[in-house]
Amino acid sequence: MVAPDFDMMPLARMSIDSLLPADSPRLAGLDHAHVRVLAESPDELPPIIVHRSTGRVIDGMHRLQAAVLHGETEVAVRLYDGDEREAFVLAVQTNIVHGLPLSLADRNAAAARIVTLYPEWSDRAIASCVGLAPKTVGAVRRRSGELGSDPGVRRGLDGRKRPVSSLEGRLTASRLLRERPNASLREIAEAAGIAPSTAMDVRNRLASGQHPVPNRPRGAVNDSSLARPRNQGHERPKPSAKTLEAALRVVRTDPSLRFNAAGRLLLRWLGAYPPGPVEWNQVVGSVPSHCVDLVVDLARRNADLLHEFAKELEERQCDHNVHIEQSRREVNQSTEFQKRVR
Hints:
The protein has 342 residues and is an alpha+beta fold. Helices cover 53% and strands 8% of the residues. The strands form two sheets. The chain has a four-stranded mixed sheet. Strands 5-6 form a two-stranded antiparallel sheet. A hairpin with a 4-residue loop joins strand 2 (48-51) and strand 3 (56-59). Residues 12-96 form the ParB-like N-terminal domain.
């Protein structure tokens, strides 16, 4: 899912006549205006990427046609050794990060094809390849009806397999937490097949009298030992507009964010959105009707990406808390051992 290092691919020169056209993610084919722009460029163009076993172009059809316009008979190439499925994914990844951008229709079509090629990949893993939000990939998957050979499991960005639904894992974790109260969260998470952050959430829910499965669907397993009063909520309250404005003022003055490039980028993200409906109404009226669909798609994608960003931050904090707890547990165990030795 991570694009290979192009500089590590073998460099060679190949006859243009020996190359096959790309299995391109571009629905409209070549952009001849872009070919002319490349042909007129005084700079040396980077090598194209070619699938070694088939001779098919993976990335660089516009550069190849620019070379043809120059009357060249050979081009510099980087040779890729993966299979044809991997070659298509690489073609999408390379067209996302450089060159002429893929259109929204191109990226949706590429997502649909990758869902078919790799049904076991998670929505987030495919989204990282095609430049879409994970929720958009999920919608593409549902339309395609492709669930894979094991529809209960998906492979994530880190290569690990995880259940699509954590319901069973959460119930297993809740049982293990009662049966093995001295076990670490990492041990519980590994035994239940869930992330340590999910195991921590299960433990916190049990401690506050909640069911281990948030917003459990109708018909879910009803374990009376896990029942809790309805008024003992554990969900994060929705902050008011004034609270959010105050939070933004705090983070904008935090030197750990202001004085590094990544922090300043984050502050620009957080401050780029209107604080309330009044500003929204002013902007809504200014969007021309022929741009509405495009703006809606972009706004929803940005919202989905920010939601995923917030989720990543929460999971990182949970993992950090798990690590702190594990370290504290190891220190306590070491102290107890030393006391017994004495």
